[in-house]
Amino acid sequence: MIKLPPKLAVCGLIIFCLTYSHASAGDNSLQQVSFQSVLELPSGSPDNSYSYGSHPSQFIQYWNAPKQPDTAANVIFIHGGCWLKEYDITHTNPASSAMRTAGFNVWSVEYRRLGEQGGEWPASLNDVKTAIRFIQQKLNNQPVAVMGHSAGGHLALLATTRNTPSAESINAVIGLAAITNMVSYTQAQGSCNRAASNLMKTAYTSEEDYRTASPKAQKLHANTWLMQGTKDKIVPMSQTADLDVKTEQLEGAGHFDLIHPNSSAWEAIIQRLNKELKP
Question: Looking at residues 80-84, what average pLDDT do you find?
Fold first, then answer.
């Protein structure tokens, strides 16, 4: 056995304790996480559920802040999943639970998706708009952000354009790896790109129709943020280009980092929410 001098032994003990303490608190430095790792995350349960329509996918999960929900800021969250029925609200339960822990009331929206009855475009967008109006009737007069991930970011941006009446009482709109240009996105290769193309084909045929479904071609909410990982292989950085919005690049982050509460990207998301909703 190697014996360390007393001073080195003490230093080693301090380093060990600090390292152990940090690991116990949760490692918030993860990058390039997989979708499977998101599915394996633990989460709590929502505090309530509301239906905003007759379809089984037209519901909202409500996660209230653990302390003083009456005065907590609100996040209306739209999950992603390429607009497909195979990817439902449950994969973002860990993110909703983490936002609740961070002190926000979270309203997580489920909506009709491609493959479900009535899920053709623009059903998902119409559902999100209806859900936002429903939620606004239940809010506590505190600040509110609409935030969506990937395809959910696409829907969040479109549902809160400046000509939408409900946008007036929204403080911020945040797209996490949001798909903003359906023209270019449907022309690229990838499973989500093919899903986007299939979705558009349920309603549209011309390129002009694709632009109508593109946030890039709309007047977006005056306080819109796009948060994008520089290593995202599903929604590339080019989806943030040439938009009249504010952007925040998340260095080294992949697509699913933005819904993984133990990632470095997640820390930046919570910071952004705090800045926009708790000035």
Answer: 98
